[in-house]
Amino acid sequence: MGKVKKAPGKELAVPDTPGRRGPKLKGPTTEDDFEVFESLCRIQCTLHEIAAFFKCDPDTLEKRVKQYYGEKFSVVFRVFRKGGLVSLRRVQYEKAIAGNVTLLIWLGKQYLGQREEPDDYDPDPPGEERSDEEVEAEILKRMNRREARAKRGLK
Prior knowledge:
Elements: H1 31-42, H2 47-53, H3 58-69, H4 73-97, H5 101-112, H6 132-154
Helix pairs in contact: 1-4, 2-3, 4-5
């Protein structure tokens, strides 16, 4: 993961635009603004959402980010976004361990290869009988799939 350096105490100079009507759309310029920017990245806001929050054009936001961090928006966003993903994963795990059955099931499917099969599952369609050899072949096929999933889960 790439490191993004902040310029401590650095404020960006925003030139006045003569003849422009309406409020000046300058985007983030202070250290506090960039702390808010980092928080918005952590909660997975998009470039356009962050620009809307700062009431500026996305191009302006990209320029301010480049000036402040010395990196492109996409690089800076990825770094701060990861912090949000870690927090989200931690909270999900805590909720699951605390007994949230839905999260336990979901995490089991995601990380342990678990899946659901209905209790009344009948591999033979109604009115169609299968030979013992066909049933054995189906069982072996299913066992091989389970072993393959288990191996993927260990890696």
